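wait is this the right file?? whatever heres the structure
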């Protein structure tokens, strides 16, 4: 088996406070999530599941905050912010009754890395897509990420995400450019 190139920064802690840009692609770049129509993404059922599961991350993990996000026909782009003090901020710093131990959602959470968060997104979205009848659906292994180092990078990345559907005709992830559009 061919060794995959490591995409992560060596020695960097991907659970620290910061903004992270991620791209997650469908295996073989198959069209699965809908189509770009008039420079706007029109989600199909599978695309709506992916959008829902992306938002699930922020419901599940109080220290992760949502920024720009777009579902494209065969990939997604999003910005995640990790704020280690996010849990205290969202609960107002109060002591919470965590119940009898069965309700883990109110108990202190270990800060997950970006890799763990994207793994949870890919796993839960795949499961929901399979349950909806698309049993052949698979994400590409791994994902692409970039640590956004300053406000300028954050701003430029937001613009890129927002404008992605408008630039689809020129996008390297658009199989139509090479005439080999694949559907799942």
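ok assuming it is, sequence goes like this
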């Amino acid at each position: 088996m061919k060794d995959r190139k490591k995409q992560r920064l060596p020695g960097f802690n991907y659970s620290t406070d910061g903004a992270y840009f991620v791209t997650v692609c469908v295996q073989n770049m198959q069209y699965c999530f809908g189509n770009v129509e008039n420079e706007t993404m029109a989600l199909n059922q599978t695309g709506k599941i992916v959008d829902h599961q992306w938002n699930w991350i922020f419901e599940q993990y109080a220290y992760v905050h949502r920024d720009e996000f777009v579902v494209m026909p065969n990939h997604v782009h999003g910005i995640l912010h990790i704020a280690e003090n996010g849990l205290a901020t969202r609960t107002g710093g109060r002591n919470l009754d965590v119940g009898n131990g069965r309700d883990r959602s109110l108990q202190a959470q270990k800060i997950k890395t970006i890799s763990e968060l994207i793994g949870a997104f890919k796993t839960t979205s795949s499961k929901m897509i399979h349950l909806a009848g698309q049993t052949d659906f698979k994400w590409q292994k791994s994902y692409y990420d970039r640590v956004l180092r300053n406000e300028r990078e954050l701003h430029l990345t937001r613009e890129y995400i927002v404008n992605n559907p408008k630039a689809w005709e020129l996008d390297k992830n658009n199989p139509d450019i090479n005439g080999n559009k694949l559907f799942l």
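The helical segments are 45-60, 86-91, 114-131, 151-163. so i think its the right one actually
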